[in-house]
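lol forgot to send this yesterday, sorry. struct tokens for the thing we talked abt
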């Protein structure tokens, strides 16, 4: 076996070289051209590969613990099942690379380009992915424990395979200010996750468990929340006017929690909120007022067909008092035909 450990090979051109039984542990390969090289199961622990070109290189099962790949080009590289604990990939290019089942504990991918990267079954424990571009990344069955995804771009990233019941695991993950537009998080347990000021527009969160999650200031425009569990979820100041909400029969608290924390029912010294919209040339207005004795007053302005002018409509006003928010919602649901302008399971209710 040739021993190149700790060797200085800066800017060397090793393209398509045959490196059978070569020891490159702690070697300095800064800015080296390694394209076309077979590095399967090679030992590159603590090697310096800063700005190296490893495009398309096969590093399957390689030992890369504490290696430095900062600003390196690893586009379409195969890092499946590689050992990358505490490796540094800051600002590197990993577009379309495969990190399937890789050990990424404490690795640094901050500001890395990881578009359409494969992270299936990868171990992301204490991994730093802050400000990384992970658009279209595949996280199915990946384990994310205390991973930092702050300000990361996760647009259209996939975390679940709903048909095959395979999901990523996210625990104590920081998604503060991340972009999850269109991401697939269906059925995933997201309890206590920090989504504050996160972009979740058009994201799929059907059947997800968002209990006790922090969603204050999150963007939920056109977000799919059908069947999502929202028990004790912080939705203060969240606009649910265009979110897709469905109230499961077995989960009576979801709609109540969403309503209490939405723009329709803001917490204040004078807890009063309103929803006004313009539909087919007519203005609809709904006002909910919580009274000091716990009862709620519901005011409505709506339109009915004119009693004798065909095709015309006339405005109506009603004022009703209920024992609680729950009673109000139940009454509307039971008398759906009467409250056609009020749909508490649809976006018009939340404004």
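and heres what i got for the seq, position by position
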């Amino acid at each position: 076996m040739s021993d190149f450990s700790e060797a200085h090979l800066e800017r060397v051109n090793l393209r398509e070289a045959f490196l059978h039984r070569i020891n490159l542990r702690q070697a300095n390969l800064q800015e080296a051209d390694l394209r076309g090289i077979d590095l399967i199961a090679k030992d590159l622990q603590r090697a310096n590969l800063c700005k190296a070109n490893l495009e398309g290189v096969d590093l399957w099962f390689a030992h890369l613990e504490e290696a430095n790949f900062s600003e390196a080009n690893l586009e379409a590289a195969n890092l499946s099942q590689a050992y990358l604990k505490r490796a540094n990939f800051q600002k590197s290019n990993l577009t379309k690379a495969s990190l399937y089942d890789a050990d990424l504990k404490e690795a640094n991918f901050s500001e890395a380009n990881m578009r359409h990267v494969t992270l299936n079954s990868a171990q992301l424990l204490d991994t730093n992915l802050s400000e990384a571009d992970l658009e279209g990344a595949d996280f199915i069955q990946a384990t994310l424990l205390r991973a930092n995804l702050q300000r990361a771009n996760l647009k259209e990233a996939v975390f679940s395979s709903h048909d095959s019941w395979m999901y990523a695991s996210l625990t104590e993950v920081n998604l503060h200010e991340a972009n999850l537009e269109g991401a697939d998080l269906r059925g995933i347990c997201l309890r206590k996750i920090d989504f504050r000021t996160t972009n979740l527009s058009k994201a799929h969160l059907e059947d997800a468990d968002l209990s006790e999650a922090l969603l204050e200031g999150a963007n939920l425009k056109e977000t799919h929340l059908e069947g999502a569990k929202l028990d004790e979820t912080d939705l203060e100041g969240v606009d649910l006017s265009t979110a897709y909400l469905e109230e499961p029969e077995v989960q009576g608290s979801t709609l109540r929690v969403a309503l209490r924390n939405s723009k329709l029912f803001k917490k204040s010294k004078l807890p009063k909120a309103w929803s006004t919209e313009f539909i087919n040339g007519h203005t609809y207005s709904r006002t909910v007022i919580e009274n000091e004795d716990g009862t709620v007053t519901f005011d409505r302005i709506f339109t009915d067909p004119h009693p004798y002018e065909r095709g015309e409509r006339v405005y109506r006003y009603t004022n009703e008092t209920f024992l609680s928010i729950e009673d109000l919602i139940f009454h509307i649901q039971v008398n759906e035909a009467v409250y056609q302008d009020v749909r508490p399971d649809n976006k018009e209710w939340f404004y």
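The two ends are 70 Å apart (CA to CA). anyway ping me if u want another try
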